[in-house]
Amino acid sequence: MPPRRRQRPGLLSSTRPRAVVKSNHAALSAKATRTLIRSHHQLLKAKAQAEKAGDEALVSSINAQIEARGGLESYQVASKLGQSGERGGDSSKTLIDWIKPQLKEWKSTLPKLRVLEVGALSTKNACSRTPSLDVSRIDLNSQEPGILKQDFMERPLPSSEDERFHIISLSLVLNYVPDPVGRGDMLSRCVQFLTAECPISLPPTLFLVLPVACVDNSRYLTEDRLLAILSSLGFELAQSRRTNKLIYQLWNHTRPSSPQAFKKEMLNPGHKRNNFAVIMRES
């Protein structure tokens, strides 16, 4: 029998987490997907705290940990898997189902409704396949053509009604923001991007999707507090539904915004609860 050929050692690059995630998308279990997403959020939170404290060494260390886990790209891969058909599906289907009665009023002679999808992961979701909608997609790390690489908080403010939107989608975006003040600022900023001019009877709309733990298992945020925050911005809750993991909400902007200050305060004590919070600065 001829001697067995010695196997050549693999390249170091083959052990990098990002490559593993990219080549084995389907192999990620639901549990592994949730773990990756949770780990990414925890690291971003720790990074924000280190930046606030001015600890550059710790910031650098955390950045290294984020990159070692595949960076933003691996987080997006996990998010895409979480929204795949076999993991619960495209969240924008819920949005389309909720506004379907109003969309029936639309005719091809009317302007399309402008949608801003923040944190977009796909150009083929339910919104994108709806003829009456003109979808603008942005994300911090664009994964495909048709998604603009842009931070919503740095997007230039609209200078005309044509640059405003009838619908803004924040699907699993607010929970990605690591700082409670930043989350409040993001909600406030949405108002500035909504238009009151609509060719059909659909009010300016915010579609919000959060992990249910953000409102059920947080020390500092409850569903009632979220309602109070968005009400102060002029929103009215039109639709809401829950799954085991997510809460979906549709908010209509029905009156002028008059932001109130909402501080980080204990609302739901418990040592097993999380620290998710939204802080609003009074304008």
Automatic annotation (TrEMBL):
Assigned keywords, A-Z: Methyltransferase, Nucleus, S-adenosyl-L-methionine, Transferase
Enzyme class: transferase
Function description: S-adenosyl-L-methionine-dependent methyltransferase that specifically methylates the N(1) position of an adenine present in helix 65 in 25S rRNA.
Main location: nucleus
Subcellular localization, as worded in the UniProt entry: Nucleus, Nucleolus
Keyword Transit peptide tagged: no
Binding-site residues, S-adenosyl-L-methionine: G119, D139
Family annotation (Pfam families): Bmt2 (PF11968)
EC number: 2.1.1.-
Similarity comment: Belongs to the BMT2 family.
Domain of life of the organism encoding this protein: Eukaryota
GO molecular-function term, one example from the UniProt record: rRNA (adenine) methyltransferase activity
Species of provenance: Penicillium malachiteum
Protein name, as recorded: 25S rRNA adenine-N(1) methyltransferase
Entry GO terms, CC: nucleolus
